[in-house]
Design goal:
Blueprint (H helix, E strand, L loop, with lengths): L1 H15 L5 H11 L1 E3 L5 E3 H6 L12 H16 L3 H26 L9 E6 L1 H7 L5 H6 L5 E5 L1 H20 L8 H20 L3 H10 L1 H11 L5 H30 L4 H5 L5 H18 L7 H9 L2 H26 L1 H26 L5 H20 L4 H33 L10 H4 L1 H14 L6 H16 L1 H26 L15 H19 L2 H4 L3 H5 L6
Antiparallel strand pairs: 1-2, 3-4
């Protein structure tokens, strides 16, 4: 079942490979049309189109045929090709099939146990044992890395979030991406496989491999299909910042293998590791996850990446990529290094509070629409980290609920500001926007609902997650809980200012009147709104599968 989740996107990539890229066809068609003028010389249609102020006079009996030929070439050069539509349909169908498989896996999941389910293992040792030819010499020479996967109540919902968001990413740029469309779609399908692999592998080294492999398609998505001249710098910031942080995790994994002879997560969690060793290993892992969360002061790359990424890239960054570190805290730091986690918890909670307050205040100073949503994401992740290190069921389960809620609401806000507004006005500077409610009432309503969800108002999943998180943190440390609760006030400040600045007032003199939400945009927002409200009213749909898995993460002081 898990192997099927990993293979389906790869099959979709293989189906896309035979298609010819539409960008190259368009350029060729535009460059081959020729225009014959009176003196017998020829000009290509690209020159004719790019110089609208020059009028070329055609003479002779063949002028009508020349005009018809040029018109046909221009139409062929600008019209969307059937192959491009087929490629998008194949990628979307692939992601939807993977979503259906993950839903079946969710339905069949047994919530009455904390054990890993759907466990699959592929290694040389397994095949040799089944053939009864394994000898001590052969076993010693085999590589320690083996493909070992499984899911529990925690990883289940991160897998569901990944398969749910991938179709949204593909649909978000349905009409925007023309250059290298095939490789754009392949990048997202490969990214889906790599993200799912991070959440299901049960081997530390494989976790590191897939944890870092997601950087490659992200680097390409931002660097090639991003917006503005800063996209190259943003892609390098994303790649180098997070890669540097993860090198410490690789070093810690090598130390674990050298001392304990295995990188199996379940086996390592049973080992007795001294407190001093745990401290050094914990710091190495924490630095890696702090870059990816991101926590202050390792957050610089995120606003650059969001501002320069295409809409699909911003959605996948906010919804899933930031959750890789959340999963790492739950899968490595809490169960494998519990003593060091208890020792460093005050430090982590202090950093999380600083991150929350700093990001919330910095959001008020942003002028880029996507930058505002990006900085608010950092503040929400600070609340998540507070709950993860609260060492009680309420705090950890609340952090998981808030992570999932952020994976719905933040992409919706990116669609509103980075998709709906940017596709119409081609600017994200907030100073130009005012009075959208006068011309785009449906957009204003959807934007208002998601702004409320971002503020964590009741009946939304954000509220259920934030309430449980802060309740758990308050049990652990009332002072930290009170400081963390300031995020409620600060998020209301920047959210209300953000919504009011765009939606109300006199309509901006810098913007023309344009259409309201299209059918595709409305369905995307509705798709993200439904789970936000349903799971906010009935959070036990998620919590029932979390209780046993989260209980195993608690440590005795």
């Amino acid at each position: 079942m898990i192997t099927l989740l990993l293979i389906i996107p790869v099959i979709g990539c293989l189906c896309l490979i035979p298609f010819k890229d539409t960008g190259a066809i368009t350029a060729t068609a535009a460059n081959t049309a020729e225009i014959k003028v009176a003196d017998g010389s020829s000009l290509d249609s690209a020159t004719q189109i790019n110089e609208p102020n020059v009028v070329w006079h055609l003479e002779g009996d063949n002028s009508n045929s020349v005009q018809a030929t040029v018109q046909n070439e221009v139409v062929n050069a600008t019209a969307p090709s059937d192959s491009g539509l087929r490629m998008k349909q194949i990628a979307l169908l692939t992601s939807l099939v993977n979503l259906l498989v993950s839903i079946v896996l969710w339905i069949k999941f047994d919530s009455s146990t904390s054990q890993y389910q759907y466990v699959e293992e592929y290694s040389g040792i397994t095949s040799l044992l089944t053939q009864n030819i394994a000898t001590p010499e052969i076993l010693q020479s085999l590589p320690f890395l083996h493909f070992y996967v499984g899911i529990d109540g925690i990883s289940l919902y991160f897998v569901l979030l990944t398969t749910f968001i991938t179709p949204v990413c593909i649909l978000s740029n349905w009409d925007d991406i023309e250059k290298n469309l095939k490789f754009y779609l392949i990048s997202f399908l490969l990214l889906e496989t790599l993200q799912i692999a991070v959440f299901v592998v049960l081997d530390l080294l494989l976790f590191y491999v897939f944890f870092e492999s997601v950087l490659i398609p992200l680097f390409l998505i931002i660097g090639i299909w991003g917006a503005g001249y800063s996209r190259i710098r943003a892609s390098f910031l994303l790649f180098l910042y997070t890669l540097f942080g993860s090198l410490w995790m690789l070093l810690a994994i090598m130390v674990i293998y050298y001392n304990y002879g295995s990188t199996d997560m379940q086996l390592i969690s049973l080992k007795e590791i001294s407190l001093e060793s745990q401290k050094w290993l914990w710091l190495a892992f924490f630095i890696s996850f702090a870059f990816k969360t991101p926590l202050f002061p390792f957050h610089i790359w995120l606003s650059w990446a969001h501002s320069s990424a295409p809409l699909g890239g911003s959605i996948i960054l906010a919804s899933v990529i930031l959750k890789l570190a959340t999963y790492g805290y739950l899968r490595i730091l809490l169960p494998i290094l519990p003593d060091a986690t208890h020792y460093f918890s005050p430090l982590v909670q202090t950093i999380a509070v600083v991150t929350l307050i700093f990001a919330s205040l910095a959001t008020l100073r942003q002028t880029d629409l996507k930058g505002i949503v990006a900085m608010s994401s950092i503040g929400h992740m600070g609340v998540v980290v507070l709950g993860l290190f609260s060492n009680n069921i309420q705090g950890i389960e609340g952090a998981l609920l808030l992570s999932i809620a952020h994976g719905f609401v933040s992409p919706a806000l990116f669609i509103c500001v980075g998709g709906v507004l940017y596709s119409r006005y081609h600017t994200r500077t907030i100073n130009y926007f005012r009075g959208m409610a006068l011309t785009m009432p449906l957009f204003t309503i959807m934007f208002f609902v998601f702004t409320l969800a971002n503020m964590a108002v009741p009946l939304t999943l954000n509220w259920a997650g934030e309430f449980l998180t802060l309740a758990g943190v308050f049990q652990r440390n009332p002072i930290i809980g009170a400081l963390g609760a300031t995020g409620i006030f600060l998020s209301a400040c920047y959210s209300i200012w953000f919504y009011n600045r765009i939606s109300y007032g006199k309509f901006s003199v810098y913007l023309p009147v344009t259409n309201d939400l299209s059918r595709r945009e409305f369905m995307l927002l509705l798709t993200l709104l439904i789970p936000t409200l349903i799971l906010g009213i009935f959070p036990n749909i998620i919590l029932n599968n979390l209780h046993f898995s989260v209980s195993n993460l608690l440590y005795t002081v």
